[in-house]
Amino acid sequence: MTRAITAHVTRAGAMCALVAGVLLLAACERPPVDMVQRGFRGTGMDQVYNPRTIARQASVNVAPEDSPAADANGPKASAVFKNVKVAGDLSVGEFTRLMASMTAWVAPAQGCAYCHKAGEDFSSDSLYTKVVARRMLEMTRHINADWSNHVAATGVTCYTCHRGQPVPAKVWSMPVPQKQASGMVGDNAGQNVAAESVAWTALPYDPYTPYLSQAADVRIIGDTALPTGNRKSTKQAEFTYGLMMHMSQALGVNCTYCHNSRSFADWEGSTPQRVTAWHGIRMARDINTQYMDGLTRVFPANRLGPMGDVLKVNCDTCHQGAYKPLYGAGLLKNHPELKGKKAAAQAPSPAAVAAAPAK
Ligand code: HEC
Ligand code: HEC
Ligand code: HEC
Ligand code: HEC
Questions:
Q1: How far is the CA of 141 from the centre of ligand 3 (A)?
Q2: Closest CA to 207 of 194, 191, 231
Q3: CB 247 near ligand 3, within 6 Å
Q4: Cβ(123) to ligand 1 under 6 A?
Q5: What is d(CA 62, CA 60) in angstroms, rounded to the nearest whole number?
Q6: Does the C-beta of 325 come closer than 6 Å to ligand 4?
Q7: Across residues 142-154, what is the average pLDDT?
Q8: pLDDT reading at 200 higher than 60
Q9: How big is the CA angle at 64 (ends 342 and 163), to the nearest 5 degrees?
Q10: pLDDT for 202-250, tens place per residue?
């Protein structure tokens, strides 16, 4: 009896060793994923890093070479050029460097002629691309000057979104309502098709319009133990989850980069990054409504989405899979001209200080 049991156990042991060996071999074929603990032990706030995903992200998040700063002295662009409406505060040297940088960041293959028609005076506004670029210049200054609670000192340049091409790789516009594949059940209520926008889940495939164009409330969890008073529907919760899938994918992170999964609503248990993300949602909405929408009529039809709206910005436009765009390698420090009007950055005059009410 004892011998029989021993034999059985030995056979089982050999079997286990075999299975373990096969599993080990299988695991060795591809590099394993890495786990990094970000919260208190036992709270499950780990980040999973897949080396294959990281390699893909890293290749698109390299900051380009930059040119040395130009001479800030000398006559102002506004005094020398004819039709300068935004960057007139720069010296001619700084202005010319900015033109060269904008070309490298947005239209390196096309050159100056992408915005200035060959043979025409540089002051002409005949190309729509120049009109768009002027507004983009104002937008970039606004982001850096007024959204520092999101972009911090890293800031953004044209390159953050454009990455060397006229139309940024990651943009969105309103989708054409999709029918079910079978055509039998008709309208799919904006969901239930594996959509890239929500990381190939069946969640609503346009989580952008409600939150990044309109000001729908992201919050869906009630703040009482019993379901009293919470009027949020399952459908609204699905839209929130759609946005969350987009945010996680755009930053290359898991939910617990921002949340403690004990309570997704609770701010106390959340990471500081969740606060940055909160501002990011408002910033994307501001960019889309105050700048992008207003350009709709400037763009030719082939630059608009299928529903006729302008191509807009989401988290991925800047982040492109990285927790910080270009892994935080900002070019703004070499381009103070993109940080808003120079006058605003100057110290207040002593008279203004004296006139200010005492604290
Ligand atoms: C992505 C679009 C874009 C590209 C590419 C571009 N520019 Fe410009 N350029 C502009 C905009 C926008 C203005 C007006 C800026 C303003 O109103 O403050 C401008 C204005 C100018 C002016 C002032 C003309 C005047 O008299 O009003 C000059 C000169 C100029 N650009 C030269 C260049 C040169 C040289 C290049 C190539 C190295 C170049 N630009 C590439 C968008 C562009
Ligand atoms: C926050 C992201 C973002 C930043 C920063 C940004 N852009 Fe854009 N830009 C866009 C988007 C999105 C579009 C596409 C709109 C469309 O095609 O409907 C666009 C389109 C353009 C176009 C039109 C290209 C075409 O072929 O139709 C030009 C020119 C342009 N941007 C210039 C600039 C310049 C110059 C800067 C820096 C001063 C800049 N952009 C900064 C997001 C950005
Ligand atoms: C980059 C940070 C970030 C990531 C990653 C993230 N979230 Fe969020 N989440 C937020 C922010 C910010 C809010 C609040 C937004 C607001 O109120 O405007 C929020 C809100 C929520 C809410 C609503 C909470 C309430 O008060 O009702 C849920 C549920 C949620 N997230 C789930 C998730 C899930 C699930 C994931 C992973 C798929 C995820 N989040 C990933 C930042 C993040
Ligand atoms: C206009 C470009 C732009 C857009 C759009 C944008 N971000 Fe960011 N984001 C940045 C920059 C630049 C930083 C780096 C700031 C810094 O260095 O602290 C950043 C940083 C962050 C961080 C902090 C990461 C960390 O580890 O400290 C989070 C979280 C974040 N963004 C979430 C979002 C979310 C969510 C969205 C979409 C709702 C979004 N961002 C849209 C430019 C952008």
A1: 28
A2: 191
A3: yes
A4: yes
A5: 6
A6: yes
A7: 96
A8: yes
A9: 85
A10: 899 999 999 999 999 999 998 888 878 888 888 899 999 999 999 999 9
Ligand 1 pocket check for 87: Cβ under 6 Å: yes
* Tens digits of residue pLDDT in 164-193: 999 999 999 999 887 665 556 567 778 888
**pLDDT, tens digit (0-9, with 9 covering 90-100), for 247-277:** 999 999 999 999 998 899 999 999 999 999 9
State whether the Cα torsion 74-77-78-82 is positive or negative.
positive
Q: What distance in Å separates the CA atoms of residue 339 and residue 144, rounded to the nearest whole number?
A: 5
What's residue 314's pLDDT?
Answer: 98
Q: For residue 193, how far is its CA from the centre of ligand 4 (angstroms)?
A: 28
Q: Give the Å distance between the CA of 154 and the centre of ligand 4.
A: 10
Q: Which of 239, 291, 312 is nearest to 133 (CA)?
A: 291
Taking 60 as the threshold, does the pLDDT of residue 88 lie above it? Answer: yes
How far is the C-alpha of 104 from the C-alpha of 82, rounded, in Å?
24
Q: Is the CB of 134 under 6 A from ligand 1?
A: yes
Q: Is 77 within 8 Å of 87 (Cβ atoms)?
A: yes
- Spatial distance between the Cα atoms of 139 and 168, rounded to a whole number of angstroms: 15
Structure-model confidence comparison of residues 344 and 101, the more confident one: 101
The answer to whether 244 and 210 are in contact (CB under 8 A) is: no
Calculate the alpha carbon distances from 72 to 81, 154, 266, 337 in Å: 16, 22, 49, 10
Closest CA to 287 of 135, 176, 169: 135
Cβ atoms < 10 Å from Cβ of 215: 12
Is residue 106 within 6 Å of ligand 1 at its C-beta?
yes
Q: Which of 94, 98, 101, 106 to mutate to test the pocket of ligand 2 (most atoms within 8 A of CB)?
A: 106
Read off the tokens for 336: 């103070």
